[in-house]
Amino acid sequence: MKSAFTSTVLVALLATSTTALPSLQTSTKCPVVLDGRIPKTSPPSTFDTTSSPFNPKYVKSQNLTWAQIIKYPHVEPSKFDKSKNSIPFEVTISDASLFVAGGKLQPGFRRAGLLLGNGSDASNEGVRTFHWSIRQDPRRSMNLTHEYMNVWHEAGDYSSNQWSLNAGAMLAQDKPIDTNVSTVGLDKRLWKVLDRRNNVIWTTRIERDTWQNFGIVMDIPANTLQVLYSEDYEPLRPVTKPIHSDNSGGGQYQIGILKKPTETETVVFDGFQENNIDEGQIYGGIFIEDSSKGCTSR
Ligand SMILES: *[C@@H]1O[C@H](CO)[C@@H](O)[C@H](O)[C@H]1NC(C)=O
Ligand SMILES: *[C@@H]1O[C@H](CO)[C@@H](O)[C@H](O)[C@H]1NC(C)=O
Ligand SMILES: *[C@@H]1O[C@H](CO)[C@@H](O)[C@H](O)[C@H]1NC(C)=O
Ligand SMILES: *[C@@H]1O[C@H](CO)[C@@H](O)[C@H](O)[C@H]1NC(C)=O
């Protein structure tokens, strides 16, 4: 929960593995390991209780409740909510979205994010597919002059992320660890999927008025990641091969908004954030499934 500087740049390292694509099964119901889909009958205050599938304490300002942070937008349920009769929800940030980690305020960020899993559970074994659908609220847009992390898997020691979904203008601090590729030129309007070394392994446009459905197949022992994607109610399809990436260290699935500052050195403790922030991201269909037997919901 400390932070996670993740991100950037463009070294499409496709095809570093010879592993075959997983077979995507339309008919099979794959075993669900952790389920973040919210029943229709749960008010936003459920997120403040242990009835929530997410950690009720983290990651948010100590001065805000989830009932204040979570909204239920009027949009069609996402594809993996329909089958479960569950509902989409929106995670919002404001000027008050300040997080204190280990007694230290993180004034560089405005953030609110839900945690699924505790870092040492069955989502950290074998082959797992992390599912989410994301959608924009036209009344609460991101300001893409900033870099955002919206969905990620943060390593157990909080020093890195095995993968993340980022948006906006990437900070120079988040350039890939093992290359000299610059972040300049990577379009701020793109979603960017990053691996653990901040290489950008896949991008797609941030759509304005439709569900964007993602899956990350994380083969933990084989140290590979594979990205699946679709829009609306289309089936997910693989958009990368399994890419070699260090999956070690366990960790947690995080879903929300982490808005990074501009004009910053440390990213976490300094930099510029504008006032009167009112931004949100709509999520649905959040679950982690067991893909060990080649089963992936599409
Ligand atoms: C929470 O509120 C208290 C009292 O107003 C304030 O001193 C503190 O800085 C706030 N903390 C955060 C993280 O905003
Ligand atoms: C994490 O969750 C798993 C499964 O619910 C549980 O067995 C384990 O004890 C938990 N670990 C911690 C550190 O809370
Ligand atoms: C990156 O830049 C440094 C300093 O210019 C250089 O020594 C190094 O060889 C470069 N690495 C790569 C992978 O190009
Ligand atoms: C976007 O963010 C930049 C940097 O914080 C700020 O200068 C600008 O006013 C913001 N734009 C909008 C439309 O809010």
UniProtKB/TrEMBL annotation:
Pfam families: GH131_N. InterPro entries: GH131_N. Coiled coil: none annotated. Residues 1-20 form the signal peptide. Keywords: Signal. Residues 32-294 form the Glycoside hydrolase 131 catalytic N-terminal domain. PANTHER family: GH131_N DOMAIN-CONTAINING PROTEIN, GLYCOSIDE HYDROLASE 131 CATALYTIC N-TERMINAL DOMAIN-CONTAINING PROTEIN. This is Glycoside hydrolase 131 catalytic N-terminal domain-containing protein. The lineage of its organism: Eukaryota, Fungi, Dikarya, Ascomycota, Pezizomycotina.
